[in-house]
């Protein structure tokens, strides 16, 4: 629910529409109504840590929220930074998924995972544009991801792994901590990933 709410808030924020609590309850939280405060608190923490955005209630009577950018930025760089920041957020989610799945995932598994986050390859996304192109071309070109063809597959399949830039710019420990935060668990809950991250 937390990652779904984060996605929902980011999409709403693109259109700069104030977000009503009623919409969050109806569209995302649904039957988890009792955990509303906890879900919103966790989503807010992720928005701050990953995207540099803060969820602020602007109308306490009608429970209306907006996202504000809490990153210091030079005037004029703002737009590019915003989109870049969100792409980096998506990249972090993908790197986490690859690491948690044993450092290598088939393309079909990655698309399936992104579907759960309502990010569909092949469909224009309001924030990321052409997601398939962003993931298979941009992130690969920037060396965040590497793709390797899987031999003897028809239609051809390939697998994703971390690229050299990802290895340099983040660590398995950071990624595991991010996943643990998203799931509300201790990083040691995932024993093999934990020992790998500690050894890194």
TrEMBL record:
SMART domains: MAGE
A Pfam family per the record: MAGE
PANTHER family, per database record: MELANOMA-ASSOCIATED ANTIGEN MAGE ANTIGEN, NSE3 HOMOLOG, SMC5-SMC6 COMPLEX COMPONENT
This protein's name: NSE3 protein
Domain MAGE: residue ranges: 1-197
Top-level taxon of the source organism: Eukaryota
Organism, scientific name: Quiscalus mexicanus
GO CC, one annotated term: nucleus
Family annotation (InterPro entries): MAGE, MAGE_WH1, MAGE_WH2, MHD_dom
């Amino acid at each position: 629910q937390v990652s779904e709410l984060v996605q929902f808030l980011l999409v709403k924020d693109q259109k700069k529409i104030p977000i009503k609590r009623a919409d969050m309850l109806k569209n995302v939280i649904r039957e988890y109504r009792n955990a509303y405060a906890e879900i919103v608190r966790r989503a807010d923490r992720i928005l701050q840590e990953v995207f540099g955005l803060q969820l602020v209630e602007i109308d306490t009577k009608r429970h209306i929220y907006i996202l504000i950018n809490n990153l210091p930025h030079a005037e004029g760089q703002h737009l590019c930074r915003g989109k870049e920041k969100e792409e980096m957020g998506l990249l972090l989610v993908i790197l986490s998924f690859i690491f948690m799945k044993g450092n290598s995932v088939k393309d079909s598994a990655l698309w399936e995972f992104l579907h759960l986050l309502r990010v569909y390859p092949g469909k224009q996304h309001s924030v990321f544009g052409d997601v398939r192109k962003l993931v298979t071309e941009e992130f690969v070109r920037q060396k965040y991801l590497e793709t390797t063809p899987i031999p003897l597959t028809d239609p051809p399949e390939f697998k994703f792994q971390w690229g050299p830039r990802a290895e340099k710019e983040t660590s398995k420990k950071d990624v595991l901590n991010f996943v643990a935060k998203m799931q509300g668990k201790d990083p040691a809950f995932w024993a093999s990933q934990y020992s790998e991250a500690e050894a890194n």
